[in-house]
Protein backbone atom coordinates (compact mmCIF):
# COMPACT_ATOMS: atom_id res chain seq x y z
CA UNK A 1 0.00 0.00 0.00
CA UNK A 2 2.70 2.49 0.99
CA UNK A 3 5.49 0.67 -0.81
CA UNK A 4 7.40 3.27 -2.79
CA UNK A 5 8.69 0.61 -5.19
CA UNK A 6 5.16 0.18 -6.52
CA UNK A 7 5.12 3.87 -7.53
CA UNK A 8 8.51 4.14 -9.17
CA UNK A 9 11.49 1.82 -9.76
CA UNK A 10 13.89 1.56 -6.83
CA UNK A 11 17.56 1.88 -7.73
CA UNK A 12 19.92 -0.66 -6.11
CA UNK A 13 21.71 2.22 -4.37
CA UNK A 14 18.46 3.09 -2.59
CA UNK A 15 18.27 -0.33 -0.96
CA UNK A 16 20.71 0.36 1.86
CA UNK A 17 19.19 -2.47 3.87
CA UNK A 18 19.78 -5.08 1.13
CA UNK A 19 23.09 -6.42 2.59
CA UNK A 20 21.43 -6.90 5.98
CA UNK A 21 18.38 -8.55 4.38
CA UNK A 22 20.58 -10.84 2.25
CA UNK A 23 22.50 -11.86 5.37
CA UNK A 24 19.28 -12.67 7.23
CA UNK A 25 17.92 -14.69 4.30
CA UNK A 26 21.15 -16.59 3.81
CA UNK A 27 22.09 -17.36 7.42
CA UNK A 28 18.94 -17.05 9.52
CA UNK A 29 16.08 -18.09 7.24
CA UNK A 30 14.72 -20.87 9.53
CA UNK A 31 14.59 -18.43 12.44
CA UNK A 32 13.09 -15.40 10.66
CA UNK A 33 10.54 -17.45 8.72
CA UNK A 34 9.23 -19.03 11.93
CA UNK A 35 5.91 -17.61 13.21
CA UNK A 36 7.47 -17.74 16.69
CA UNK A 37 10.21 -15.25 15.69
CA UNK A 38 8.04 -12.16 16.23
CA UNK A 39 7.04 -13.41 19.72
CA UNK A 40 10.66 -14.09 20.62
CA UNK A 41 11.67 -10.66 19.29
CA UNK A 42 8.93 -8.85 21.19
CA UNK A 43 9.51 -10.64 24.50
CA UNK A 44 13.29 -10.31 24.37
CA UNK A 45 12.94 -6.58 23.62
CA UNK A 46 10.62 -6.22 26.63
CA UNK A 47 13.23 -7.90 28.84
CA UNK A 48 16.28 -6.07 27.42
CA UNK A 49 14.60 -2.64 27.54
CA UNK A 50 13.21 -3.18 31.05
CA UNK A 51 16.38 -4.38 32.78
CA UNK A 52 18.33 -1.05 32.79
CA UNK A 53 15.35 0.85 34.21
CA UNK A 54 14.74 -1.87 36.82
CA UNK A 55 18.36 -1.39 37.95
CA UNK A 56 17.73 2.36 38.17
CA UNK A 57 14.68 1.69 40.32
CA UNK A 58 16.61 -0.62 42.64
CA UNK A 59 19.52 1.81 43.02
CA UNK A 60 17.16 4.79 43.50
CA UNK A 61 18.77 7.73 45.36
CA UNK A 62 22.20 6.11 44.99
CA UNK A 63 22.13 7.45 41.43
CA UNK A 64 21.03 11.06 42.07
CA UNK A 65 21.69 12.15 38.49
CA UNK A 66 18.97 9.79 37.23
CA UNK A 67 16.80 9.84 40.34
CA UNK A 68 16.13 13.58 39.93
CA UNK A 69 13.96 12.62 36.93
CA UNK A 70 11.78 10.10 38.83
CA UNK A 71 8.18 11.26 38.46
CA UNK A 72 6.63 9.86 41.66
CA UNK A 73 9.53 9.88 44.09
CA UNK A 74 7.31 8.84 46.99
CA UNK A 75 6.42 5.55 45.26
CA UNK A 76 9.20 3.07 44.51
CA UNK A 77 8.73 -0.38 43.00
CA UNK A 78 9.97 -3.24 45.15
CA UNK A 79 11.69 -6.39 43.92
CA UNK A 80 8.47 -8.28 44.73
CA UNK A 81 6.39 -5.96 42.51
CA UNK A 82 8.92 -6.29 39.69
CA UNK A 83 9.00 -10.06 39.88
CA UNK A 84 5.18 -10.22 39.93
CA UNK A 85 4.96 -8.13 36.73
CA UNK A 86 7.65 -10.14 34.97
CA UNK A 87 6.24 -13.53 35.97
CA UNK A 88 2.76 -12.42 34.82
CA UNK A 89 4.20 -11.48 31.41
CA UNK A 90 6.22 -14.72 31.19
CA UNK A 91 3.26 -16.88 32.24
CA UNK A 92 0.96 -15.19 29.68
CA UNK A 93 3.47 -15.75 26.90
CA UNK A 94 4.17 -19.39 27.80
CA UNK A 95 0.60 -20.44 28.51
CA UNK A 96 -1.40 -18.34 26.03
CA UNK A 97 0.69 -16.59 23.38
CA UNK A 98 2.86 -19.53 22.32
CA UNK A 99 -0.11 -21.97 22.09
CA UNK A 100 -2.07 -19.32 20.12
CA UNK A 101 0.81 -18.96 17.65
CA UNK A 102 1.08 -22.76 17.44
CA UNK A 103 -2.63 -23.01 16.54
CA UNK A 104 -2.10 -20.19 14.01
CA UNK A 105 0.58 -22.22 12.23
CA UNK A 106 -2.08 -24.81 11.32
CA UNK A 107 -4.55 -22.17 10.08
CA UNK A 108 -2.49 -19.41 8.48
CA UNK A 109 -0.09 -19.78 5.53
CA UNK A 110 3.65 -19.44 6.25
CA UNK A 111 4.89 -15.85 5.87
CA UNK A 112 6.59 -15.13 2.54
CA UNK A 113 10.04 -13.58 2.66
CA UNK A 114 10.71 -11.41 -0.42
CA UNK A 115 14.16 -11.28 -1.99
CA UNK A 116 14.29 -7.47 -1.98
CA UNK A 117 14.87 -5.43 1.16
CA UNK A 118 12.65 -2.42 1.83
CA UNK A 119 14.08 1.05 1.30
CA UNK A 120 14.63 3.20 4.38
CA UNK A 121 11.75 5.34 3.09
CA UNK A 122 9.47 2.27 3.10
CA UNK A 123 10.52 1.36 6.63
CA UNK A 124 9.83 4.89 7.86
CA UNK A 125 6.53 5.54 6.07
CA UNK A 126 5.03 2.05 6.49
CA UNK A 127 6.32 1.83 10.06
CA UNK A 128 4.81 5.21 10.95
CA UNK A 129 1.49 4.17 9.38
CA UNK A 130 1.47 0.95 11.45
CA UNK A 131 2.22 2.87 14.66
CA UNK A 132 -0.50 5.46 13.91
CA UNK A 133 -3.05 2.74 13.18
CA UNK A 134 -2.23 0.84 16.37
CA UNK A 135 -2.35 4.08 18.36
CA UNK A 136 -5.89 4.82 17.11
CA UNK A 137 -7.08 1.26 17.80
CA UNK A 138 -5.65 1.20 21.30
CA UNK A 139 -7.00 4.69 22.11
CA UNK A 140 -10.54 3.51 21.36
CA UNK A 141 -10.08 0.16 23.15
CA UNK A 142 -8.48 1.85 26.16
CA UNK A 143 -11.22 4.52 26.37
CA UNK A 144 -13.94 1.82 26.31
CA UNK A 145 -12.19 -0.27 28.95
CA UNK A 146 -12.07 2.68 31.34
CA UNK A 147 -15.64 3.83 30.69
CA UNK A 148 -17.28 0.40 31.09
CA UNK A 149 -16.85 -0.86 34.69
CA UNK A 150 -17.19 -4.53 33.68
CA UNK A 151 -14.59 -4.27 30.92
CA UNK A 152 -12.31 -2.42 33.31
CA UNK A 153 -12.72 -4.90 36.16
CA UNK A 154 -12.32 -8.08 34.12
CA UNK A 155 -9.84 -7.01 31.44
CA UNK A 156 -7.89 -3.80 32.05
CA UNK A 157 -7.64 -3.51 35.86
CA UNK A 158 -4.68 -5.94 35.95
CA UNK A 159 -2.57 -3.29 34.26
CA UNK A 160 -3.60 -0.64 36.79
CA UNK A 161 -2.45 -2.48 39.90
CA UNK A 162 0.27 0.14 40.37
CA UNK A 163 -0.32 3.91 40.49
CA UNK A 164 3.36 4.49 39.78
CA UNK A 165 4.39 2.37 36.78
CA UNK A 166 7.84 0.83 36.36
CA UNK A 167 9.47 -0.83 33.35
CA UNK A 168 8.43 -4.43 34.10
CA UNK A 169 4.79 -3.35 34.56
CA UNK A 170 4.63 -2.56 30.82
CA UNK A 171 3.43 -6.10 30.16
CA UNK A 172 1.50 -6.72 33.34
CA UNK A 173 -1.62 -7.32 31.28
CA UNK A 174 -4.63 -9.59 31.44
CA UNK A 175 -4.69 -12.36 28.85
CA UNK A 176 -7.50 -10.72 26.79
CA UNK A 177 -5.58 -7.42 26.71
CA UNK A 178 -2.31 -9.11 25.71
CA UNK A 179 -4.03 -11.14 22.99
CA UNK A 180 -5.85 -8.02 21.67
CA UNK A 181 -2.63 -6.02 21.53
CA UNK A 182 -0.82 -8.96 19.93
CA UNK A 183 -3.60 -9.42 17.38
CA UNK A 184 -3.43 -5.79 16.21
CA UNK A 185 0.37 -5.78 16.24
CA UNK A 186 0.35 -8.72 13.84
CA UNK A 187 -2.64 -7.72 11.73
CA UNK A 188 -1.82 -4.03 11.13
CA UNK A 189 1.47 -4.60 9.23
CA UNK A 190 -0.31 -7.24 7.11
CA UNK A 191 -3.15 -4.82 6.30
CA UNK A 192 -0.61 -2.13 5.38
CA UNK A 193 1.42 -4.70 3.41
CA UNK A 194 4.60 -3.91 5.32
CA UNK A 195 7.83 -5.68 4.46
CA UNK A 196 8.77 -8.23 7.19
CA UNK A 197 11.82 -6.14 8.07
CA UNK A 198 9.56 -3.10 8.56
CA UNK A 199 7.24 -5.19 10.76
CA UNK A 200 10.15 -6.23 12.97
CA UNK A 201 11.37 -2.61 13.22
CA UNK A 202 7.83 -1.57 14.25
CA UNK A 203 7.80 -4.35 16.86
CA UNK A 204 11.12 -3.27 18.39
CA UNK A 205 10.19 0.43 18.26
CA UNK A 206 6.71 -0.03 19.71
CA UNK A 207 8.05 -2.17 22.59
CA UNK A 208 10.65 0.53 23.28
CA UNK A 209 7.95 3.23 23.33
CA UNK A 210 5.71 1.08 25.56
CA UNK A 211 8.54 0.49 28.04
CA UNK A 212 9.44 4.20 27.93
CA UNK A 213 5.79 4.98 28.78
CA UNK A 214 6.17 2.94 31.97
CA UNK A 215 9.68 3.75 33.19
CA UNK A 216 8.43 6.30 35.71
CA UNK A 217 11.23 8.74 34.83
CA UNK A 218 10.82 11.91 32.76
CA UNK A 219 14.33 11.96 31.33
CA UNK A 220 15.27 14.78 28.94
CA UNK A 221 16.53 12.41 26.23
CA UNK A 222 13.47 10.18 25.92
CA UNK A 223 11.53 10.15 22.64
CA UNK A 224 8.76 12.46 23.88
CA UNK A 225 11.42 15.16 24.32
CA UNK A 226 13.34 14.35 21.12
CA UNK A 227 10.25 14.43 18.86
CA UNK A 228 9.02 18.06 18.63
CA UNK A 229 5.65 19.69 19.38
CA UNK A 230 4.74 17.14 22.08
CA UNK A 231 3.64 14.69 19.38
CA UNK A 232 4.54 11.76 21.66
CA UNK A 233 3.16 11.41 25.18
CA UNK A 234 5.92 9.24 26.68
CA UNK A 235 6.41 8.59 30.38
CA UNK A 236 4.93 11.90 31.64
CA UNK A 237 1.61 11.27 29.87
CA UNK A 238 1.34 7.58 30.73
CA UNK A 239 2.48 8.05 34.32
CA UNK A 240 -0.35 10.57 34.62
CA UNK A 241 -2.73 7.96 33.17
CA UNK A 242 -1.81 5.58 36.01
CA UNK A 243 -2.41 8.40 38.52
CA UNK A 244 -5.57 9.75 36.85
CA UNK A 245 -6.96 6.84 34.80
CA UNK A 246 -9.49 8.96 32.88
CA UNK A 247 -6.72 10.78 31.04
CA UNK A 248 -4.10 10.12 28.35
CA UNK A 249 -5.55 6.98 26.77
CA UNK A 250 -3.26 6.90 23.72
CA UNK A 251 -0.20 4.65 23.99
CA UNK A 252 2.21 6.59 21.79
CA UNK A 253 1.02 9.79 20.13
CA UNK A 254 -0.80 12.71 21.77
CA UNK A 255 -3.20 13.83 19.01
CA UNK A 256 -6.23 11.70 19.99
CA UNK A 257 -6.09 12.84 23.61
CA UNK A 258 -5.72 16.46 22.51
CA UNK A 259 -8.58 16.12 20.01
CA UNK A 260 -11.01 14.54 22.48
CA UNK A 261 -9.95 16.60 25.50
CA UNK A 262 -8.51 13.69 27.48
CA UNK A 263 -4.92 15.00 27.54
CA UNK A 264 -3.62 15.89 31.01
CA UNK A 265 -0.09 17.22 31.43
CA UNK A 266 2.32 16.38 34.17
CA UNK A 267 3.35 19.33 36.32
CA UNK A 268 7.12 19.10 36.51
CA UNK A 269 8.72 19.71 39.90
CA UNK A 270 12.21 19.93 38.46
CA UNK A 271 14.08 21.73 35.70
CA UNK A 272 16.45 20.62 32.99
ZN1 LIG B 1 0.30 1.51 31.61
ZN1 LIG C 1 -5.64 2.33 31.42
Give an overview of the whole structure.
With 272 residues, the chain is mainly alpha-helical. The chain has one domain. Helix content is 59%, strand content 0%. The chain contains twelve helices and no strands. It has helices at 18-27, 29-32, 37-59, 64-67, 79-107, 120-147, 149-156, 175-191, 196-214, 223-226, 234-243, 255-259. α3 runs antiparallel to α5 (79-107). 35% of the residues are buried. The mean pLDDT is 92. One zinc ion is lined by residues 142, 146, 156, 160, 241, 245.
Extended strand count: 0
Tell me what portion of residues adopts beta-strand conformation: under 5%
Distinct compounds present: zinc ion
Coarse structural class: mainly alpha
Average predicted confidence as pLDDT:
92
Taking the alpha carbons of the first and last residues, their distance comes to: 42 Å
Q: Uncertain regions: pLDDT < 50 for 5+ in a row?
A: none
Number of helices: 12
Given the C-alpha coordinates, what overall shape results? globular
Task: Profile the largest sheet.
Answer: none
Query: Considering DSSP H and I runs of 4 or more, what fraction of the residues is helical?
Result: 55-70%
| Alpha carbon gyration radius | 19 Å
Q: Give the H and E element order.
A: HHHHHHHHHHHH
Number of domains as seen in the coordinates? 1
Amino acid sequence: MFNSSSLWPVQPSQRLLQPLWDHLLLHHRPLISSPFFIVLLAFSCYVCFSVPFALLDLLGEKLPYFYQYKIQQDRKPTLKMMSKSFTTALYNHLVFVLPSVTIGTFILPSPMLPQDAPTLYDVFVDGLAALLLFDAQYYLWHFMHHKNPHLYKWIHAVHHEYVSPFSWSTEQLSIPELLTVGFWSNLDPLLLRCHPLTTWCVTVFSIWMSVEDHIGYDMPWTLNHLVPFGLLGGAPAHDMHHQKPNSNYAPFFSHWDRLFGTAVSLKRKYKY
